[in-house]
Design a protein that fits this description.
- Helix 4 (58-81) crosses helix 5 (89-125), helix 9 (204-237) crosses helix 18 (442-462) and helix 12 crosses helix 13.
- By secondary structure, the protein is mainly α.
- The chain has two domains: 2-199, no CATH class; 206-509, no CATH class.
- Helix content is 69%, strand content 0%.
- It has helices at 2-10, 16-31, 35-53, 58-81, 89-125, 143-159, 168-176, 189-197, 204-237, 249-279, 297-303, 306-317, 327-345, 349-367, 369-378, 386-408, 412-421, 442-462, 467-472, 476-493.
Length: 510
């Protein structure tokens, strides 16, 4: 067990071992001849990578991948028998069997324990003596991501928007490609396959931008997410230890820090894997677009975890009818999407409430649209003014942060304890030393906050220009000053200069 844990730690995306692995992988990739040989190399690397991270569940990934490859061919063959004709019952049965098998794998490994707990609670409520015990299974890393990717592939083959992949090598690589197999982004197979088949040539500019992306990811993760995570864990893991009358606002600070931590953790991971894939000539989809600058919750969900929301739109919301069947049905569809999103993130009541709350925000926004328009006219509010835009951004961030409390809380009881105390005006926590009792020294706290401010600034600038492309156009002396400065800051002030280990990426648990 200790050896396995050590191997997992070695292959974290922010480890030196991963950087060495990446360098050797890229060097060999461009030395090898032909796309097929390179694809074999990437598949071997991806298999070894996943084996190191999740050795006990590697076989699950292999079985699901092999099943989906075969199911895709069956579904595609049935569809081509009657090209252009309406789908028959057996076509639908083939798709249903394929989707249910893949989804069933996710349910068994992720939700069986929750189902058993709910069932036992119901049996106890009914005073029935039968109480089966179900052991929670080890959750395979990335299962929520590669099962959703596989389901999308099967549905797209059924719809005729993509052809079944004939080559098992390329299909397996599209699912198991090591940058995305652990935590996404959720990439459509049909978008990956052409890139994996292409013979990529070494491109200095692409390498530059890829390394900058990776460096930005390291900065977000090691300078901000890991440090603020210490503070957040101290408060959220033991909320009842902060029960004094003068400490209420500490929960607001912890919720704010968690919002920043989660963004820097997941967007930092996305930067690292997008940069890693770009080193091999593969472009992965953008997953974040400065989400905390959103001016409504609807706008936030167009910017946050974009590939998941696109998946839910294409494979849940639209099949349910979308907005085509009246307002009442649209409200139901929105709530279903966000309840699915909540369950996808975790098998717990707090995740369901988090999803329901975000769905309720969107529904309320739609229902109150006319009221808002009336108030804007009555109060003569200039919607284009800076003040109004700032108000919208701040209020949206506040609503999202409030919902994050349910996402982070260990239980519903903890969330119910924390939320009322977030609004207690105990501003003296900033002067009485309370802030420095949550696991971080003053220097570490200042480093994290200054680093977060830099990320906020770059996010704001990214809405106006492509910063990486802009930097690549600058004089070499300026570019290399930025490169070395970024490396120096991360090495000195990040994980490698600190006294704690880099934490696992949050979304690895999903």
């Amino acid at each position: 067990m200790a050896v396995l844990d050590r191997l997992v730690g070695l292959m974290q995306f922010t480890s030196v071992a991963y950087l060495v692995f990446l360098v050797l992988a890229v060097l060999a990739y461009f030395v090898l001849p032909g796309p097929r040989t390179r694809a074999v190399w990437l598949l071997v690397l991806s298999s070894a990578f996943y084996l190191l991270l999740s050795p006990r569940s590697f076989w699950i990934l292999i079985v699901v991948t092999a099943f989906a490859y075969a199911a895709g061919h069956v579904i595609g063959a049935l569809r081509t028998e009657r090209e252009g004709a309406p789908p028959r019952m057996r076509d639908k049965l083939a798709l249903g069997l394929g989707v249910m098998t893949v989804a069933g794998t996710l349910i068994v490994f992720k939700y069986l324990g929750l189902i058993a707990e709910v069932g036992n609670g119901l049996l106890q409520t009914l005073s029935l003596p039968f109480s089966p015990s179900v052991t929670r299974l080890l959750l395979p890393i990335g299962i929520s991501f590669w099962t959703f990717q596989t389901i999308a592939y099967l549905v797209d083959v059924y719809r005729g928007t993509t052809a079944p992949e004939k080559n098992p090598l390329y299909y397996a690589l599209a699912v198991m490609f090591f940058p995305i197999v652990t935590a996404g982004p959720i990439t459509r197979v049909q978008n990956l396959l052409p890139q994996l088949r292409q013979r990529h040539r070494f491109d200095y500019g692409a390498m530059q931008s890829a390394l900058l992306l990776i460096g930005r990811g390291f900065f977000k993760k090691l300078m901000v997410a890991d440090r603020l995570g210490v503070f957040v864990d101290t408060v959220f893991d033991s909320p009842y230890d902060h029960s004094g009358t003068g400490t209420g606002l500490i929960f607001s600070v912890a919720a704010l820090f968690f919002a920043i931590q989660l963004y820097c953790d997941f967007s930092g991971y996305t930067d690292i894997v997008r940069g890693s894939a770009r080193l091999f000539g593969v472009e992965l989809p953008v997953n974040f677009r400065a989400p905390y600058f959103a001016r409504s919750v609807r706008d936030f969900w167009r910017r946050w975890h974009i590939t998941l929301m696109d998946w839910l739109r294409d494979y849940v919301y639209i099949p349910l009818g979308g907005n085509r069947k009246g307002r009442a049905r649209r409200v139901i569809n929105i709530m279903v999407v966000f309840l699915v999103s909540g369950l996808w993130h975790g098998a717990g009541i707090t995740y369901l409430i988090w999803g329901a709350l975000n769905g309720a925000y969107l529904v309320a926004g739609d229902l109150l649209a006319e009221v808002r328009a009336y108030l804007v006219r009555a109060l003569r509010i200039d919607r284009a003014s800076v003040g109004h835009r700032v108000f919208q951004t701040v209020s949206t961030f506040g609503l999202v942060t409030l919902a994050w409390v349910f996402f982070r809380a260990e239980s519903l009881a903890d969330a119910a304890y924390i939320i009322p105390r977030m609004f207690v005006p105990t501003v003296w926590i900033f002067t009485d030393g309370t802030m420095l009792e949550q696991g971080l020294s003053c220097a570490e706290l200042m480093i994290a906050l200054m680093s977060a401010a830099i990320i906020w600034l770059t996010d704001w600038l990214s809405l106006r220009t492509d910063l990486l492309m802009h930097l690549n156009r600058q004089h070499p002396s300026l570019r290399w000053a930025v490169y070395y400065g970024l490396i120096l800051v991360v090495v000195v002030f990040g994980h490698y200069g600190g006294t704690y280990d880099a934490a696992e990426f949050v979304y690895f648990r999903f």
